[in-house]
Amino acid sequence: MSEPAIAAISTPHAPGGIGIIRISGENALEIADRIFEPVSGGDLSKSKGYRAYFGSVNAGGKKLDDAVCLVYKAPHSYTGEDVAEINCHGGLYVTQQVLRAALDAGARPAEAGEFTKRAFLNGKIDLAQSESVMALISASGQKAANAALNTLDGKLSEKIEKCTEKITGVCASLGAWVDYPDDIIEEITPEEMEEAFESAKKDLEDIVSRYDSGKALTQGVDTVIIGRPNVGKSAVMNMLTGYDRSIVTDIAGTTRDVVEEKITVGDIVLNVADTAGIRQTDDKVENIGVERAVKRLERAELIISVFDSSEPLTDEDREIMRLCKGKKSLALLNKSDLESVLEEKDIAEYFETCVTVSAKTHSGEKELENALRSMLCSREFDSESACLTGERQRSCCLKAIEHLDLALNALRSGMTYDAVNVCADCAVDALLELTGKRASAAVVDEVFSRFCVGK
Ligand code: GDP
């Protein structure tokens, strides 16, 4: 069932060569007709689709821009609905005027992720694939992009489907027993049930472990950079972000109340928390006090602790060392271009790894990348296999594994088959939530709320 049309600017809101305004819905082509006039004449709504029309966008009797309009017909479009994509010049003003014209002509503004949500609701893609769209957009390296693309192609969904079938195969027989408990179930033996559950569990564990080992390449690792004032934290940040500003994004963290910056070291992605406290700003230089650091260290997946190797350790340095002990932490002995008075052996016992660098000359950068790789990538990440694309999917897998364990225990301890069946059913539920086949509206809304407008 097609919905009334929505419209949004689908390209970045910045000056550029081309800007795309996408209109999707039952009346999308009629709306496009009201604002777009092809030079070839005729109506877009009568188009067979899959054609590009050159013409002009007009509103209130005034020409807004020359443009090309692409026409797609339901159900063979991204959303599964009729879609018009107006490609105009990519100026901020022009794209906004064209969007406004589309809204005035009857479309309503698309919510975040609404185009992809419609694709999901129209059965074009499942929930796991929808999430991979966002993962692909935000991929900051080749492996992350590959992994997301494979999920979008359905590799993960296929694998999850296979696991689900292994479990539902058992459930079908168990269901027969629950209905007719006095009959002997002939189709499946307890050994075969156990084998099916074990096999599904192993597949899921493999998927989760692959996700965990590849997280540093795909999702990024929550990282905190600490150190007393003047050891060179800002300089280290600048060294890590390099000059490639395009890969640096500031995300105002609404939920965690910190500013987060995604930086890449080689193909490893670090989500560095509270960079506002590290970066020198024009006003007051805010350095991270130990107290504030403690809170952040608790939730960090990785701590990078910076020391000034040209100076002896201070009490503050020692306190930071103590805080890092036993945690996933890396010590950076900075300022190696100066004469050193501090050596790795002085601090090594507090950290998993120590690396000597100079943020000034960039020496030690490769060593840092290698150290991060061996700390964070427990095994070679295979982005060609079925990959999870986020914590929601991971937790669905873990829930399924947990219930398979319960089902196996019930089976082995000789509990009744309906107890086994209940546990196996819960495992299936978790997997159906992953692919969205049985996800609540709240879960679906939550997934798409993380999207950007226009996608
Ligand atoms: P923060 O307070 O920890 O953020 O330290 P900054 O990054 O602001 O650096 C403090 C001072 O140390 C600045 O004057 C930097 O130029 C200097 N600095 C930082 N890294 C290096 C380095 O690797 N070598 C040298 N010689 N100076 C450095």
How would you describe this protein?
This protein is an alpha/beta fold. The protein contains 15 helices and 14 strands. The strands form 2 sheets. The chain has a 7-stranded mixed sheet with strand order 3-4-5-6-2-1-7, with helices on one face. Helix 6 runs antiparallel to helix 7, helix 6 runs antiparallel to helix 14 and helix 7 runs antiparallel to helix 13. The longest helix has 29 residues. About 6% of the residues have low confidence. The site of guanosine-5'-diphosphate has 17 residues, from helix 8.
Question: How would you concisely characterize the structure shown here?
Answer:
The chain has 455 residues and is an alpha/beta fold. It is built from 15 helices and 14 strands.
Helix percent reads: 40-55%
Mean pLDDT, to the nearest integer, reads: 87
What is the SS-derived class? alpha/beta
Uncertain segments of ≥5 residues (pLDDT<50)?
243-258, 279-288
State the shape.
flat
Which range does the strand content fall in? 15-25%
Beta-strand segment tally: 14
Continuous helix count: 15
Taking the alpha carbons of the first and last residues, their distance comes to: 20 Å
Radius of gyration: 27 Å
